[in-house]
Write a structure and sequence with these properties.
The complex is a heterodimer.
Chain A: H1 20-25, H2 28-41, H3 43-46, H4 77-113, H5 115-130, H6 133-144, H7 148-174, H8 178-185, H9 190-198, H10 204-226, H11 238-245, H12 253-278
Helix pairs in contact in A: 2-4, 2-12, 4-5, 4-7, 4-10, 5-7, 6-7, 7-10, 8-9, 10-11, 10-12, 11-12
Chain B: H1 3-33, H2 38-43, H3 49-58, H4 65-77, H5 91-126, H6 131-144, H7 148-161, H8 175-209, H9 212-219, H10 224-233, H11 237-262, H12 267-276, H13 280-308
The chains are: A mainly alpha, B mainly alpha.
């Protein structure tokens, strides 16, 4: 059965709105991301060899024995790539997720209760905004020493401010809404209203930013590991793999190409989903 | 200068002070955050207990934090950045030696990113619904997610190793060699910094496009390049300067990465080398210098905007 659209003019064609599920399944980025996550989760099952296993088959080109070849220590590149995906995906989620958690809590509480707390937050945020985050990131990771925990601490210390700022603006807008007053009238406490009603309705912008931030975190982790300041030596990690491949660029360019392409795919698919979330994917909309 | 602008300049200058204080405090605190005993780390693994005590005393690490902070600021005001504990060379000399490479690299990167971003921004602002604008936006998403250190390696392997036209790394001795050794690094950081510039420029351009005076100009029959040049670009200039300042921060980080990748003897490469050899004084001093540079660039950009735009006032 067809329902004709309301006659609002000769040129107007009313398109049925795509369902939310449809929106995601039509996105190549969503498929790519799902595939990478699955590959990372099932890495132990999918990997043809032990990623740390040294063999004498060094620097083999991609072929039947080793689909993506072997590296300078004779390790299977495909297996290392799958396990590196695991490392990077985990680190990426936490390196962006922890700052979001911390920043959102601080920002929401400060904005909701206002007063001195809020003024202090604004002051700190203004100062942080003017500081060179990436340079401080290198300095901080250096000071804390290489390893995953210092990476996460450094990202959290430097990253929470943006989330606090984002949530602050949203909470200040949402707390003036009528349903918030309605919550008070129904006898809910301030804390309950904040966490049950204000916060969930303020998070959208933060999630949009999270998508960009995850891409940035991935690059940060990769570059720090590339310089030997990130994950511990020997851990399968994409940036570290590029770094190990550097010496063989002339004869074995693919050793550096594979992990790099993986970073690009992972980062851009997350970013593309973020664009879609914010409605920025279509330029003119 | 009008009262509103004067207030802006004074207010903006006053705003820099707490930021500077915070930067200095962080730089001094970095030392406190080092796990274990900083004096032992600085003295090196082979130092005896007496040497460690001596280092601690020399660096003032046995004094309260406030005193260390004061001392650090005092030394800085006298132009003393400390000495590298790896080579014993004064850090001011290292900086003097290497700052030129970094500055040239930043200009190269700025040139490349501006050249690449301008057509992309114009396309996305003037024909936002076109197929090519959408493709362009997607391409930007992908480019922004390409790690510069990897792009540098790939460019080197294709354009330098593949053809032999350009050096893979290092910094030549004569002028021609030096210019050639800057090409790939500039291309790399320019490419890395370009998506952000293109996106923000497109956003500010399309804001200008919908402004009343542009509609008026259009209704008077101005279109095409004259419209862009006379009515759009000029009004998009103040935001563009602010964008350039934001760019500077991205480019500076790009420079740190790219110098190391291409073996250019700049400040960024020095910072990474110092960090990997645990040369704390150098990392500390360079963190401060990069921080100061970014603060100064942002300040100058804001002041320039205030000069260009007569409507500027403080808040």
């Amino acid at each position: 059965m067809t329902v004709s659209p309301p006659a609002s003019g000769p040129d107007v064609v009313v398109k049925p709105r795509a369902s939310r599920a449809r929106l995601w399944t039509r996105s190549a980025a969503a498929w790519l991301l799902a595939l990478t996550i699955l590959a990372a989760v099932f890495a132990p099952l999918l990997a043809p060899a032990d990623p740390g296993q040294l063999t004498l088959d060094q620097l083999q080109p991609p072929g039947a024995d080793h689909l993506l070849g072997t590296d300078a220590l004779g390790r299977d590149v495909l297996s290392r790539l799958l396990f590196a995906l695991r490392t990077d995906l985990m680190l990426m989620v936490f390196a962006a997720g922890l700052p979001m958690l911390i920043g959102t809590l601080i920002g929401a509480v400060a904005a909701y209760y206002g007063g001195v707390l809020d003024a202090a937050l604004r002051w700190v945020a203004d100062i942080f905004q003017a500081l060179p985050v990436y340079v401080l990131l290198i300095a901080l990771v250096f000071v804390l020493g290489p390893g995953t925990s210092s990476l996460l601490v450094a990202f959290s210390v430097l990253g929470w401010v943006v989330y606090a700022r984002l949530i602050r603006t949203e909470v200040r807008r949402v707390r003036e809404q009528e349903y918030v007053s309605a919550g008070y009238l129904l006898g809910l406490s301030r804390t309950a209203v904040l966490f049950k009603h204000v916060l969930p309705n303020s998070l959208r912008q933060s999630f949009v930013y999270l998508a960009t931030d995850m891409g940035m975190a991935l690059q940060g982790i990769a570059v720090l590991s590339f310089f030997g300041l990130g994950v511990k030596a020997g851990t399968p990690e994409l940036g570290a793999m590029v770094s190990e491949a550097q010496l063989y660029l002339r004869s074995h360019w693919w050793l550096a190409a594979f992990p790099g392409v993986t970073i690009v795919i992972l980062g851009s698919s997350v970013a593309a989903l973020g664009d879609r979330l914010s409605g920025r994917g279509e330029v003119g909309r | 200068m009008s009262a509103g602008r004067l207030r802006f300049v004074v207010g903006r200058l006053a705003q820099v002070l707490p930021v500077l204080a915070a930067l200095l405090l962080i730089v001094v605190l970095l030392q406190q955050m080092m796990p274990g005993d900083p004096a032992r780390v600085i003295a090196g693994p082979r130092a005896t207990a007496e040497q460690v005590v001596q280092v601690r005393h020399e660096l003032g690490l046995d004094r309260p934090v406030f005193e260390q902070f004061g001392r650090h600021v005092w030394n800085l005001l006298q132009g003393d950045l400390g000495t590298s504990n790896r080579t014993g060379i004064p850090i001011t000399a290292i900086v003097g030696d290497r700052i030129g490479v970094t500055v040239w690299l930043l200009f190269g990167g700025l040139l490349v990113s501006t050249l690449l971003a301008t057509p992309a921004a114009l396309l996305m602002a003037l024909r936002p619904r076109s197929r090519s604008a959408r493709m362009c936006s997607r391409a930007l998403t992908i480019i922004i997610n390409c790690p510069p250190f990897w792009v540098g390696l790939m460019l080197a392997s294709v354009l330098a190793l593949g053809t032999g036209w350009l050096p893979v790394g290092g910094f030549g001795v004569d002028f021609g060699d030096r210019v050639r050794s800057m090409i790939l690094p500039s291309l790399t950081i320019g490419l890395a910094a370009m998506p952000l510039l293109a996106r923000s420029a497109a956003a500010s351009l399309s804001q200008v496009l919908t402004a009343d005076h542009v509609t008026t100009a259009r209704s008077l029959g101005v279109s095409g390049w004259p419209l862009v040049r006379r009515h759009l670009l000029r009004n998009a200039l103040p935001p563009a300067i602010t964008l350039l300042a934001i760019q500077a921060a991205a480019l500076l980080f790009g420079a740190v990465i790219v110098e190391q990748t291409f073996g250019l003897p700049g400040l960024g490469a020095e910072m990474i080398t110092a960090a990997s050899q645990r040369d704390f004084p150098v990392v500390q001093a360079l963190t401060l210098i990069f921080g100061l540079a970014i603060i100064a660039i942002n300040l100058l950009a804001d002041l320039a905007v205030a000069l260009l735009d007569p409507r500027t006032t403080w808040r």
